[in-house]
Specification:
By secondary structure, this protein is α+β, with helices and mostly antiparallel strands. The chain has helices spanning about 10, 30-35, 185-195, 205-210, 220-235, and strands spanning about 20-25, 85-100, 110-120, 125-140, 140-155, 175-180, 240-250, 260-265, 270-275, 280-290. Helices cover about 15% and strands about 35% of the residues.
Length: about 290
Amino acid sequence: MQRTPGPLRSYVESWAPEAVTDVDDLHAAPVAALSALLDEPAPVATTGEPLPPLWHWLYFLRWPARRDLGADGHPRHGHFLPPVPDRQRMVAGGRCTVEEPLRLGERAERVSSLGAVTTKRGRSGELLFVTQRHELRQRGRTCLVEEQDIVYRSGRTSTLHTRAALDPATARPDGHWHLPLHPDPPLLFRFSALTANAHRIHYDAPYARDVEGYPGLVVHGPLLALLMLELVRRDAPSRRVLSLSYRLRSPVFAGEHLLARGTPRDDRADLSVATHRDPAHATAEVTFTER
């Protein structure tokens, strides 16, 4: 007889992982690779130049041994993975403050620690929200402070995602800034490799459909966040981002035509990712330093 899991809070009452420090030399190759993935004619930054906001996600990666991955492709164990049975994980959103941009080609230090741990009741059952904090430094100075909100549940939801949700139509180009993307399996596969993300919903279509109930491959939430910030880099290159916050609200699937949209408002900008069926799969707000 299968034991019914207890409340999620009960699994993390004594869970208190210590802070950990990692270093990375921020080599130029990952930036060149992501630039190519986004069809840029040349790398968006080279050695010695500032790293665009959120492109630090290409660094400080962990590659567990294959035997240490679960059936869904996620790591079975990890320093900041909560001890929840049959753990399912998704990124919900985050915040970032940029004191000064990281410089490509210079050694950086990242100090990671556990932030808030809370439980909420969602449509699919009880959810555990874990905030992970990162402080990134170069030359002894704090350059960037980031918080990432990750949501976990125990076991799989009994409700499959509707197969009729997939919609290849194009969203309406609201706002001042626009960046279209038509994600296909090669793009998602390459982004998974660049970010050490082995979750099978991004590259294994039969698994995504038959096990997790999606209508197709799922576009990475971090890719949606990066796409929104690309609006700023492309349309307001003279503005430096001081802070940003983003929220990942609903999934986008391979084959859909998505559109990143942005509206500048004095010292900030409102950003979103839309498809024909949903105007706000992801949203973000950025603030700029004074001109």
